[in-house]
Amino acid sequence: MKATGVSPLAAAGPRRRFGDRVFSNLAVAAGVTILGLLGGVALFLLIESLPAVGASPAQLPGGKSLVDYIAPLAFGTVLAATIAVLIAVPLAIAVALFISHIAPRRVVLVLGFLVDLLAAIPSIVYGLWGIFVLGPAAVPVLEWLEQKLGFIVFFKGPASATGRTMLVASLVLAVMILPIVSAVCREVFSQTPRKLQEGALALGATRWEMIRMTVLPFGKSSIISGSMLGLGRALGETMAVTIILSVSGIVTFNLISQANPSTIAANIALDFPESSGLAVNTLIASGLVLFAITLVTNLAARAIISRQNIQ
Amino acid sequence: MQTSVDIPPLLAAPAGGSLWRRKLVNRVMTGLVVLAFVLALIPLFSLLYQVVSRGLPGLDWEFLTGTPRGVVGGGGAAHAIVGTVVITAVTSIISVPIGIMAAIYLTEYGGKGRLRRWLTFFVDVMTGIPSIVAGLFAFALFAIFLGPGIRLGLMGSVALSVLMIPIVIRSSEEVLKIVPNHLREASYALGTPKWRTIVKVVLPTAFAGLVTGVMIAVARIVGETAPLLVTTGIVDSINTNPFQGRMQNLAVYAYSEYRTPGVMKQASYDRAWAAALTLIAIVMILNLVARLVYRRYRTEIR
Prior knowledge:
Chain A is mainly α. Chain A contains twelve helices and no strands. At the A-B interface, helix 1, helix 2, helix 3, helix 4 and helix 5 of A face helix 1, helix 3, helix 4, helix 5 and helix 6 of B.
């Protein structure tokens, strides 16, 4: 290995001794291990899902072909995550703005800590909260939605009596991804050049006008990339959906009824412990699809972030 | 700094209207932002309140010391507490050295090489792996060699390592980066080899930050459920050996108490909430101690 150190001195400098070689090789080995690990994730999932790809529909769970098995799950996954993002992003932008530009300086640290706390809570706890607290509390709202907005396909009903619906699951997902989205936004919002902000204020803009004309345009790509990161997280989130959603394997846009499409992750968590043989391979194949979906989402987010860093 | 933000002329109409109206808009929008913030924190407080009030009744001596083995509709979570400790410890033993060494590679040895760029990129990718996929990976890895029925504590740790390593790398890289170069250069000037400079100068300077990063990473994986459901299984007695037999952590315990409640449903739910409370307490303590360590022991860098 060539030792190209952090400083010109380091590169030219110290003699390379035995200890140096061992240490730098260890460091490289750690790096290579990580690349290997990631390659391993893709490889082993692929190996274990191959039997399901080759199998005839009759052998697979539900007697459906692999595509017919995964498609409704993928639909549910994307639907739940999309709604979660739609709910979370406006709130996350507001939270980020509040902390970066509106809240008094003294309380900023505490507020930031509170929002970070949302991200630290284990998903199983969100699941329990969703089914025992938020679900029952949401039932009157769901009924109201059915009565007043039932003409919209999303709220056709009949409203669930337990609150175990797509809308509630997405709400919980929204709470879970909110800190991630808002962290990305906050970071960039607070980097808005001072001169732009002060210039706007000096021209007589109110604070909101200043935010609308400098902070938001400056942070536009961070809002997009943060949303994509949140989407990636929501797509792969397992336990909250597993616990909250009452699933029936159908494909529907109806968000408030008892019958919901499951998600890939929730389906794996529900069925895996009791599965054997080809059913396991089928579940792993669906996991591979989930991996691919989240990978594409995250790569897109990273691409946006890195483009923004170059600017 | 070059930025591409255009400021439209403020006094021209589109932004404006009368001063009174603009002030009103300002008030309303500020109010909406504050409202949204409050709205976002309601779930947090509701959740904390519910977990504490529903979890406390079940959090007794039996919960902490008993196991469900041989007990009908009762027992405790001692096996899950032991499982949490073992699984988390093994995960840390795997992840911390790899993560910190990789961070050292990135900051000290990587330079601008191709491996460095790839590594940075793939660590980003790795942070986005859904936890259940990490679980399936560990399952697939072990199932190929040991057969599909295999469930081990170690499998869970491998799965969690996939999640923990990128977190450790990110935080370690961050603190190693801010170790000032003049410290390294002073050490080289004394003729110290690079590896000793790293061990004796760079790492001690960054120590508090490294510890903080590791603790926060532990807090992130200690409450994982999904990857363990598919790798460590569900069990009802204490198992301290990660290389043999099933194991369970508190999160999986909470899930199984909820999913398959015993004859006395409410008692099971109480135990699920008690486990949730224990988990939240662990996570909060880890986060708080991590922050304290950083405040108390960080080296002042001038």
